[in-house]
Amino acid sequence: MANKIAEMFDAELINIEAPKYEIGVTGLVNAAMSFQDHEVEITPQTIDFAKYNKIYLGSPIWFYRPSPSIWKFAENNRFDGKDVVFFNSYNSNYGQNYIDEFKSLVMKHDAKSFEHKAIIRGRMGSQLSTEEFLNEVTTLFAEN
Ligand SMILES: Cc1cc2nc3c(=O)[nH]c(=O)nc-3n(C[C@H](O)[C@H](O)[C@H](O)COP(=O)(O)O)c2cc1C
Question: Is the pTM of this model over 0.90?
């Protein structure tokens, strides 16, 4: 999803790495055990957004809420005067209360605006194919 958005807007793409949640069994177990945490080691911890106008922040949805890494990243960073677009993919449901809480955090760090965009991919066995999913991304972000 992030790759597609970056390609659409000819934007710089920066991965937020969290060794604790690396793809694999350990990462999955850690995600299941500490999905409520906002405290996790991430790299990079901060980014100087001065040269950007718009920031797209992405995270999967874990147990109805954005994942720990993106909370930590938002807590660490300033979004002074920037338009922030928060995007997720998810397979069934997310809690609007958690999105609202995340918005409050971003706005508290002085973003100019906050928009939320999410795509439901469906549960295992009845998921959108990669091609269908990326087409949805293109449509959803066309007006940005
Ligand atoms: C630990 C964990 C918890 C999840 N919890 C939810 C959830 O509460 N609601 C939901 O719709 N999807 C949930 N998902 C599915 C992810 O949101 C889905 O995989 C999403 O598209 C992220 O893409 P990725 O798996 O490619 O990172 C969960 C996935 C994991 C690994």
Answer: yes
